[in-house]
Specification:
- It is a single chain.
- The protein is mainly alpha-helical.
- It has one domain.
- The chain has eight helices and two strands; from the N terminus they run H-H-E-E-H-H-H-H-H-H.
- A hairpin with an 8-residue loop joins strand 1 and strand 2.
- Helix 6 crosses helix 7.
- The chain is elongated.
- It starts with a helix and ends with a helix.
- The relative contact order is 0.16.
Length: about 200
């Protein structure tokens, strides 16, 4: 196994364990994410009731989560697919299982939201980008998405919508939950791979 591969897998496992021990993951172990929109009568406005981790737990999760989606540190899913999976010493099992996970993440991100706003139905990737790069991890004012707005502008537009914002925020948290499962599975495969190579 190449040294760079070993280091990438070790770092991947380390960061996955950090995610797993955080309050976001602990919340997901103890309860399910949910969003309830109810209305007691036609005269009263609808009430939105999310069941989700608090903002501090989400922010702490994202600080480490960024390693898995941004390419700079060599442990993002794209880096593993492009560089680590080409190591000839890695087992076929690791390569096949990782590629299944990677493809399912890519496929899932291309799915459309359940809701349309302003004549556009965003994909889950767009929702991810708006929350990550428009507020929680960055405030990107340069890159423009399919709506023609920067992630920051799109985030601000959504935040003004009383019912739309909680729905898209919920879909973003669902994305994080699915990604956590994928990350933990790849970490388990990587631990097995490292143990077998000793």
């Amino acid at each position: 196994m190449r040294d760079t591969t070993r280091r990438s897998l070790e770092r991947f496992i380390e960061k996955a364990q950090k995610l797993e021990s955080g309050r976001f993951a602990q919340f997901l172990l103890s309860q399910e994410l949910s969003l309830k929109i109810s209305r007691s009568s036609a005269e009263k406005p609808a009430r939105v009731s999310p069941v989700e981790p608090d903002d501090d737990a989400i922010d702490a999760f994202l600080l480490t989560f960024r390693f898995f989606v941004q390419d700079g540190d060599g442990i993002s899913f794209r880096c593993l697919a492009d560089h680590v999976s080409t190591d000839p010493v890695l087992s076929e099992r690791w390569k096949q299982e990782f590629m299944k996970v990677h493809q399912s993440v890519v496929s899932w991100l291309s799915e459309s939201s359940l809701f349309t706003a302003f004549g556009h139905t965003p994909t889950l990737e767009e929702i991810r980008d708006v929350f990550l790069y428009g507020d929680l991890a960055h405030m990107n004012e340069r890159r423009r998405g399919p709506s023609g707005q920067t992630p920051r502008q799109q985030f601000e537009t959504w935040r003004q919508e009383k019912y739309l914002y909680p729905v898209y925020h919920h879909e973003f948290l669902q994305f994080l939950s699915h990604m956590l499962q994928a990350i933990l599975y790849v970490a388990m495969l990587s631990k097995e791979e490292l143990q077998a190579s000793v």
